[in-house]
Write a structure and sequence with these properties.
This protein has 255 residues and is an alpha/beta fold. It has one domain: 3-Layer(aba) Sandwich (Rossmann fold), CATH 3.40.50.720. Helices cover 43% and strands 14% of the residues. It has a 7-stranded parallel beta sheet, sandwiched between helices. Strand 2, helix 2 and strand 3 form a beta-alpha-beta unit. Helix 1 crosses helix 8, helix 3 runs parallel beside helix 4 and helix 4 packs parallel to helix 5. It is globular, with a radius of gyration of 18 Å. The N and C termini lie far apart (51 Å).
Length: 255
């Protein structure tokens, strides 16, 4: 490995914002640690980046919601790869759209485990090295749902509110060590997000993005790239990123 490459670790890198971010950072010269559950997709992405950009990569297969899996995967990394410069906490999900009195416990647990606990598990492993080097940047992918609750999304909104406050707390705790911490809150992004939320119902998921132009994963990835390449004295703390057609969590101009 060429140790002149800065290293970025991206969770949820097998699709959507995570995959787009990996490609964007690879183009900027980062070595990539690609993390997720779908081994074939991650391996294909690693091969793509290696062939097209000659970017060093590592693939870690784990479910962020399972701390033993996260720790075991991290332990497999060579020591030089554990010197992560940029951590992108992207992995997360939404499940179901039922009102609170009809919600499913399994859906709630899945969102809390991935969106909150999973983010914490990965951060706990990566940030000690940043602290030791007094250098690093943590980027958490939140949601506009952290700012505005909406009907039938109470638990998802709550998990993203937790991400927002965790980000603020991380920034305070890591401030003495010169580590940057950013929260990015996208609005509607066309990805597998709605397909997962609606449990594979392609028609229902597709309707979410009809009648306007949503954000693309590449839009978020470009924003992340801009944030992590600011001068050393500049930290972008919080970004709300919306498609032009979206005014709030629930107001979207469709035509």
């Amino acid at each position: 490995m060429n140790m002149t490459h800065p290293i970025a670790l991206v969770t949820g890198a097998s699709s959507g914002i995570g995959a787009a971010t990996a490609r964007q950072l690879a183009q900027a010269g980062y070595a990539l640690i690609l993390c997720g559950r779908r081994a074939s997709r991650l391996s294909a992405l690693a091969a793509e980046l290696g062939a097209e950009l000659a970017v060093p990569t590592q693939v870690l297969i784990f479910d962020v919601s399972k701390p033993d899996e996260v720790a075991a995967a991290w332990a497999l990394l060579p020591a030089q790869w554990q010197q992560v410069d940029v951590l992108i906490n992207n992995a997360g999900n939404a499940h179901g759209m039922e009102p609170i009195h009809q919600g499913y416990l399994a859906d709630w647990e899945a969102m809390i485990d991935s969106n909150v606990r999973g983010l914490l598990f990965v951060t706990r492993l990566v940030t000690p090295g940043m602290v030791a080097r007094c250098k690093g940047h943590v980027v958490n992918i939140g949601s506009i749902a952290a700012r505005q609750a909406y009907a039938n999304g109470a638990v998802y909104c709550a998990t993203k509110s937790a991400v927002a406050l965790l980000t603020d707390g991380m920034r305070i705790d890591l401030n003495p060590y010169g580590i940057k911490v950013t929260n990015i809150e996208p609005g509607l992004v066309e990805s597998e997000f709605s397909l997962v939320r609606f449990k594979g119902d392609e028609d229902r998921a597709g309707n979410v993005y009809k009648g306007y132009t949503p954000l693309r994963p590449e839009d978020v990835a470009q924003t992340i790239h801009w944030i992590v390449t600011r001068p050393a004295h500049v930290m972008v703390a919080d970004v709300l990123l919306l498609p032009t057609a979206q005014a709030s969590a629930t107001v979207v101009k469709k035509g």
